[in-house]
Amino acid sequence: MTAVAVIGLGAMGRAIVARLLEAGHDVSVWNRTPGRDEELVAAGARRTAAATQAVEGAEVVITMVTDPPALDDVLFGPEGAGPAIPETATLIEMSTVGPTEIASVAERIAPVPVLDAPVLGSVPSVQTGKLVILAGGDRVVFDRHVELLSTLGTPVYLGPSGSGAWLKLVNNAASTATLVALGELLALTDRAGLEIDTVLRGLEVGPLASLIQRWRPRLLGEDQSSYFRLALARKDLAITFDEAERKGTELTVAEEAAARCDEAIGAGLGDEDFGAVVPFLRQRETK
Q: Are residues 154 and 198 in the same domain?
C-alpha cells in the first residue's frame, strides 16, 4: 500500500483515484473546485481542505490538472502544495503541460524528484487499467514507482525529464491532425457517393487501419461519448506550438489542423469529444 495524494479531480483525476482505491492504496484528494470528491470519499479517499494537507505524509503526489497555469497554481500559488511535499516523496505529474513547464516545476520543487508521466487514453482506459503512461525522469525513480503506475496501465520509460511530456504533445498533435485529415477526406468520399461502411473497410487495410478500428463506432455515429474535449485538444496544440517555436521548428500541418479545430470550436463544439471535428468537416465540406 502506498500513501498517494491526488491533486486535480477532473474526469481523469477521479478515475485515477478510484482505480488506486480499488488496488488498496491510501489516497488523499484535493481539488480547487469543491464538490467533486463525494463518491471518492464514500469509496475510502480522504478529503482534505487544502493542497498542503493532501500531501502531508504522502509517498507519491499525483497532479492531473488542465494546463500549465493550473499546475503552477496548485503547486506554487497561495497555499500551493509544492513546498509541503515531503522530500522523501515523488511528484508524478500526469497532466499535459509540456517539457518547459516540467523543467520549471522540477527546478522549483527540488530536492523532491519529479516524473513527467502524461497518459494516452481516457476514462475507460483508466477504469480497465489500460492507460499508456509516457514517463520521463530519473530511471531509478521511475523503477521505484513502476508497480504503482502499472495499476493504471502500461508505464513506458522514455528517458530524461521532459521526455514523457514531449511524446505526449507529439502523440496528441498527430492524433488531432490525423482526425482533421480524415474528416476532410471523408467529405471527399461523401461527394463521390461512397457509403461510409465501404470507405471504412477500404481504410482499414491501409495506413489508417489502427485509427479506423478504434474510431469505427464514433465515425458511424454509434458512440457519442466524450472522452477528450475538443477544447482541450486545441489547448494541447497551443502548448506544442509554443515548444516548437522554442526549438525553431515549424509545424505547418498541425497549424492547419488547429485552424480547423478553431472553426469547429467556433461552431459550438468545444465541449464535444475532439472526434467531433470529423463530422463537422464532413458537413462543412459537403455543403
A: no
In this structure, what CATH number is given to the domain that contains residue 97?
Answer: 3.40.50.720
**Greatest alpha-carbon span in the chain:** 63
pLDDT tens per residue across span 120-143: 999 999 999 999 999 999 999 999
pLDDT exceeds cutoff 90 at 287: no
Helix (H) or strand (E) holding 29, with range, is strand 26-30
Query: Has this prediction a pTM greater than 0.90?
Result: yes
Spatial separation of the C-alpha atoms in residues 16 and 8, rounded to whole Å: 10
Q: Indicate the helix (H) or strand (E) that contains 136.
A: strand 131-136
Q: Per the structure block, which three cell numbers stand in for 147?
A: 508497480
CA separation for the pair 75, 3 (Å, rounded): 18
Residue 122's φ and ψ, nearest 5 degrees, are: -130, -165
Same domain, 94 and 217: no
CA 226, distance to chain mean position in Å, is 14
**How many angstroms separate the Cα of 49 from the Cα of each of 29, 32, 60?**
9, 10, 19
Q: Which residue has the cell 484528494?
A: 29
